[in-house]
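Entry 14. Structure prediction run on the chain below.
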Amino acid sequence: MRVVIAEDSGLLRQLLAELFTAKGLEVTGLAQTLPEVLRLVEADPPDIVVLDIRMPPAYRDEGLQAAEALRARYPDLGLLILSHYAETSYAVRLLEISSHAVGYLVKDRVQDADRLLEAAHRVASGEVVIDPEVVQRLLLRPRRADPLANLTSVEKQVLALIAEGYSNAAIGKKLSYSVKTVEKRVTSISQKLGLSPAGGEERADINVRVLAVLTYLRSLDQR
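Output returned:
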């Protein structure tokens, strides 16, 4: 797997490059700024780009700006955002940019090489990965108008795992359910959240999962 790393901190940039190289990935470019990463990807598109959320020149949301620009030009490129902050608003924006091959991780995950590598591979293969810390914030923070109020505790468990990017099969394994049982839970969740996916069966499942995650993440901001 080929990867470009865009990170403001030279020390972390080098650490990520060494980590990925040690795990058998090919690091094809290192960038510090938004313009640099766009040029690197254009010159030699990789399988995945790891993006710092805040980079020069403005140190605001350059990682998300880069993700939006890259997704428009490279529809299947993996985009993994790293941030110091478990910000649900950033995760929502990322999912609004793309419904596949994206991930949002808190930088603390860099200390867990296997976890980071797993996320990179999942994103590169087209999955959506959201940091568990973001998901936990959603579970623990009180909300005045809660769109999840009608979900059972089991359905909330399933939705939390969907938000982290797990497939139906992986959810079934974690919760000791059959895939068919998980599918029924996903259908119930989509009905209770009022989600109406369009397209074929496979497309509908993807749409339900992404819409459910967006509803889940947006619920944090409802006070």
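DSSP finds ten helices and six strands in the chain.
Filed with the rest of this week's runs.
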